[in-house]
Amino acid sequence: MDPITNPYAPGAGQRPPQLAGRDEQLRAFDVVLERIGRGRAERSIVLTGLRGVGKTVLLNALRSSAVRACWGTGKLEARPEQRLRRPLAAAAHQAVRELAHPRGDEVDSVLGVVKAFALRDTPSSARLRDRWQPGIDVAAVAGRADSGDIEIDLVELFTDIGGLAAEVGKGIAFFIDEMQDLDPEDVSAVCAACHEISQSGLPVIVVGAGLPHLPAVLSASKSYSERLFRYQRIDRLDRPSADRALVGPAGEEGCGFTSEALEGMYAVTAGYPYFIQAYGKVVWDVAPASPITAHDIRVAAPEAEAELAVGFFGSRFERATPAERDYLRAMADAALAGGGETGPEVAGGGETGPELAAYEGPGVLEREAVSTSAVAQVLGRKPQSLSPARDALIKKGLIYSAERGQIAFTVPHFGRYLRSQA
To answer: Which one of 45, 211, 286, 358 has the fewest CB atoms closer than 10 angstroms to its CB?
Structure first.
């Protein structure tokens, strides 16, 4: 097969050639945009899921829908070491410009509020050369969104931006990736601002994406967040959608798959979008001719797994300290349930909660979540003594707390990778 025409695109947040299996979310978001445009009440949206399921890709697709609807949009990626003001101010600046409000004086007034909001991030005692400038070419508006209390300021910022959008019959949407990494004070401010905006009926929404424990992060900040957001779990693709993700792009290049090859691809990828693209790219390069067969899948699998071991799994494992790596390996060992059940139908699990199972080979089942006591038992330690390693891994985004006393990997098939490296 010609590698130049290879249609598959594995990459962080890179849109695949065919966005299969997400039609429901895209249609629902179009309804949200239309309802808000007509003055109807709608909740902000939170997408959750493991790494590699396509949350960032879907977030970008939803933003494209908002742009097509002539909304103002801004996107930012939360980082543990960064507070919210600067990236949100940049996103707000872009959203106001995209809105294309016809009255320049009103736009300048709102941009002045955005600038005041941004500049409050710089201490007044900072030297001139250390003062950050947001790149907004208007004077900052004093007394609005500059109190220093992020919760008060964010409510005022959203109110002014929402009023500007309402004047032209459009809306503003902020897209926040890796939302679980927001500072606790910033999480509280986002929830409070969304709550205030929903009560005032202004056309501003937040669309967040994050790891499976993001709802718990929001709930710990504001109890009403459970009713404030519409939560959507983004999971692996079902078999028909996974087949479309492979067959559609290949068909445009005049190539096909045998039914056995599609079955084999689903067995090795478990329907995870990133794995589908990663295996698809290698299989295309290895296959001598169309149609791609099950034999081609078997030949390509070792190379695809080696690439995933370095780029997808290994890069994350290297971020852990020796003690944290021991904890990760113990999690992988504790996840094995045994029991003799086999079959692709358990590959990657379904939507059955903490007892999700991932297919690893004949007779081996891997639980998605394991108890902290089981990990301690594998290591021969007391659970309390392992808390520092567990908490550090949660902060690094390698594991998450599925529920009280339960932990799980944020990366699918990470346990299998760790055992293969033992």
So the answer is: 286
- 17 in a domain, yes or no? no
Note the pLDDT of residue 101.
Answer: 86
Per the CB < 8 A criterion, the answer to whether 187 and 85 are in contact is no
Q: What is the 3-state secondary structure (H, E, C) of the chain?
A: CCHHHCCCCCCCCCCCCCCCCCHHHHHHHHHHHHHHHCCCCCCEEEEECCCCCCHHHHHHHHHHHHHHCCCEEEEEECCCCCCCHHHHHHHHHHHHHHHCCCCHHHHHHHHHHHHHHHHCCCCCCCCHHHCCCCCCCCCCCCCCCCCCCHHHHHHHHHHHHHHHHHHCCCCEEEEEECHHHCCHHHHHHHHHHHHHHHHHCCCEEEEEEECCCHHHHHHHHCCCHHHHEEEEECCCCCHHHHHHHHHHHHHHCCCCECHHHHHHHHHHHCCCHHHHHHHHHHHHHHCCCCCECHHHHHHHHHHHHHHHHHHHHHHHHCCCCHHHHHHHHHHHHHCECCCCCCCHHHCCCCCCHHHCEEECCCCCEEECEEEHHHHHHHHCCCHHHHHHHHHHHHHCCCEEEEECCEEEECCCCHHHHHHHHC
In this structure, are 26 and 147 located in the same domain? Answer: yes
Boundaries of domain holding 119: 22-233
Q: Is position 15 within any domain?
A: no
Within a domain: 13: no
Clarify whether residues 70 and 149 are in a common domain: yes
Are 8 and 16 spatial neighbours (Cβ–Cβ below 8 Å)? yes
The reply to whether 37 and 180 lie within a common domain is yes
- Residue-wise pLDDT tens digits, 112-170: 999 999 988 765 555 544 455 667 888 889 999 999 999 999 999 999 999 999 999 99
pTM of the model: 0.87
| Domain presence at residue 70 | yes
Are 93 and 132 found together in one domain? yes
For 159-211, write each residue's pLDDT tens digit.
Answer: 999 999 999 999 999 999 999 999 999 999 999 999 999 999 999 999 999 99
Tell me: do 107 and 122 sit in the same domain: yes
- CATH number for the domain harbouring residue 370: 1.10.10.10
